[in-house]
Design brief:
Elements lengths: L2 E6 L1 H4 L14 E5 L5 H13 L5 E6 L3 H10 L3 H7 L13 H18 L4 E5 L11 H19 L3 E3 L2 H9 L11 H11 L3 H10 L13 H15 L2
Parallel strand pairs: 1-2, 1-3, 3-4, 4-5
Length: 236
C-alpha cells in the first residue's frame, strides 16, 4: 500500500484539539508544524520530493490559515507578534495579501507538480477562522480559497473542500464568536484536552462552539468531518 504524505500546520500536527489524521483510514506520514504558513508547508513538501525515492500515493497539502490569522492577531496582541516570529518555517513569512499569497502558491505548486511523477497532489481548502462565518477573517478566507482553487485546478492538482462541510454544520447550530485569544490559552487547552475526545467536546460546549475547541482547531466532530471529506479524495 502506498503511503499518503500529509504536509500541514497545527491541524495536521494534531497537538491542539483533536487530530483529524487519526481518522484517515490510510497508511500515512504526517508532517505538520504548528504555526506554519502555506509557503513553509509547500517548501517542506518540495524538499521531500526533491530527495527522490517517493512511494507516496497522494501528497496532501493542508494550510494557509496562518497566513491570514497570524498577521491579524499580531496587530492587536504583543504575545502573538512574538509568537509569529518563532512559529512555523522562518524562511517563509505569512502573507495576508491575496495577490502575493497566490503568486507564491502558484510558483510552489508548479514546482511540486514538476517533481511528482506517479503521485497525486491534493490541496485542501483553508478551514474556518472562528465560527462566526460572516466575520472579516472568514470573508478573507473565502477569497483566498477561491483563488487557491483556481490555481490548483489550473496546474492539474486536486482540490479538496474541507471547509464547506464544517460551515454547513455551523450554520445548523448556534455558535459563538469565540476565537483563541492568546498563545497561552492554546497551551492551556492542550493541557486540558490532550487527545481526549470527550474533553474536546466539553470544552467546545463551554464556549458554545460546534466543530472546534477554540474557533480554529477541531473537536471530535470537526476532526471526523475533515477526515471523512479527505478520505473520499484519497481513494482515486
Amino acid at each position: 500500500m502506498k503511503t499518503t504524505l500529509i504536509y500541514g500546520d497545527s491541524l495536521s500536527s494534531g497537538r491542539y484539539g483533536i487530530a483529524y489524521t487519526a481518522y484517515l483510514p490510510v497508511q500515512k506520514e504526517i508532517h505538520g508544524i504548528d504555526g506554519d504558513n502555506l509557503g513553509g508547508i509547500m517548501a517542506r513538501a518540495i524538499s521531500r520530493i526533491r530527495r527522490g525515492n517517493l512511494t507516496a500515493g497522494t501528497v496532501v497539502i493542508q494550510g494557509g490559515a496562518n497566513d491570514i490569522l497570524l498577521p491579524y492577531v499580531s496587530r492587536s496582541d504583543a504575545s502573538w507578534r512574538l509568537a509569529t516570529t518563532k512559529l512555523g518555517t522562518l524562511s517563509h513569512t505569512p502573507i495576508d495579501d491575496v495577490n502575493r499569497f497566490i503568486s507564491r502558491f502558484s510558483k510552489q505548486l508548479n514546482e511540486l507538480v514538476e517533481h511528482i511523477k506517479n503521485s497525486n497532489i491534493l490541496i485542501c481548502s483553508i478551514t474556518v477562522l472562528g465560527e462566526r462565518l460572516d466575520s472579516t477573517l472568514n470573508q478573507t478566507r473565502n477569497m483566498f480559497n477561491a483563488a487557491m482553487k483556481e490555481v490548483t485546478l489550473e496546474y492539474g492538482a486536486r482540490w479538496c473542500d474541507v471547509s464547506t462541510p464544517l460551515e454547513h454544520i455551523i450554520r445548523q447550530n448556534q455558535s459563538s464568536g469565540y476565537l483563541v485569544p492568546t498563545l497561552s490559552s492554546l497551551e492551556e487547552d492542550t493541557m486540558y484536552v490532550g487527545s481526549d475526545e470527550l474533553r474536546s467536546s466539553l470544552l467546545s460546549e463551554s464556549r458554545n462552539l460546534v466543530v472546534t475547541v477554540d474557533g480554529i482547531h477541531p473537536n471530535l466532530l470537526g476532526a471526523k468531518t475533515i477526515a471523512e471529506t479527505l478520505t473520499v479524495h484519497l481513494h482515486w
